[in-house]
Specification:
By secondary structure, the chain is of the alpha+beta class. It contains 8 helices and 12 strands. It is globular and about 60 Å long. Its EC number is 2.3.1.-.
Length: 267
């Protein structure tokens, strides 16, 4: 990593902690309860989410107590069926992994926190012949986009994500849904989430059908979203990235500044 990349990584991570680890992280929350350093968030469809800006100078006993108390908060609400605790690799959190496992949380796949200048991502990326990108807003398109993502990730096709996305569109909070189509079929998709009162826009939910990978389609979709972010006045792009999409974003100038690992609890 060059000296300039090290400096950018430090700057990006500081901006991430300061600007994004607040209410900006949960724009569609139904309720947020503050418990010490924790933000205990409730979303639609019985989903809980635990996050925080930092945990302070906590010790292992403090961590164990916080995990137990946070889980009890959700266990006392019968409508909550699952909870995610979002950890970050650069946090000071001694014993957190062990405390989460002790309380029935299951560790999920670690992802890379990627950040970079929107202008670096907003390249002119050629598309294969017959592929076109567009922004979608209709219920039919949103449900088709969501079903494609479920298929790509090997999940049963569910209405839950589509319902949540349609709810978000109804809020008119700036979220944009983008797809790439070929032969009348959605072959790639993702969303853009401009974060109010920050320099950031997030790119999320990227999914591309296997037979269309390796042709630059996802990179073009990311570039389209970055150009839209710039039009909205955003200068930085962030994403939690799988190992599939991380190299694509790195080639576009984004840097891995840390990691994030979710832990899931189900009733």
């Amino acid at each position: 990593m060059t000296h300039n990349e090290v400096a950018n990584k430090t700057r990006f991570l500081a901006a991430y902690d300061e600007q994004l680890r607040t209410d900006a992280e949960t724009p569609s929350a139904i309720n947020v309860t503050v418990h010490g350093p924790l933000r205990l968030v409730t979303f639609m469809n019985g989903r809980g989410f635990i996050t925080y800006q930092d945990l302070g100078l906590v010790q292992k006993d403090d961590i164990r107590r916080l995990v137990s108390e946070a889980l009890a908060h959700y266990q006392n609400s019968p409508e909550i069926t699952r909870v995610e605790w979002k950890t970050r690799g650069h946090d000071h959190a001694p014993g957190l992994h062990e405390a989460l496992l002790e309380n029935g949380f299951i560790v999920q796949e670690t992802e890379s926190i990627m950040i970079g200048e929107a202008s670096a991502l907003a390249i002119e990326a050629p598309l294969p012949q017959g592929v076109a990108l567009r922004q979608v807003t209709s219920e039919v398109d949103v449900r088709a986009m969501s079903a494609m993502a479920d298929e790509v990730f090997g999940e049963p096709i569910s209405t839950e994500m589509a319902d949540a996305l349609l709810h978000r569109l109804g809020l008119d909070d700036g979220m944009e849904l983008w797809v790439g189509e070929a032969e009348g079929q959605i072959v790639t998709a993702g969303r853009l989430e401009p974060v109010p009162n920050t320099n950031f826009a997030g790119i999320w939910g990227g999914a591309t059908r296997e037979q269309w990978r390796g042709q630059g389609i996802y990179r073009a979709l990311s570039a389209a979203r970055a150009r839209s972010a710039i039009r909205l006045g955003k200068t930085l792009i962030h994403s939690d990235s799988t190992e599939f999409s991380r190299p694509i974003l790195e080639r576009s100038g984004l840097l891995k500044v840390s990691t994030t690992t979710p832990y899931q609890w189900k009733r």
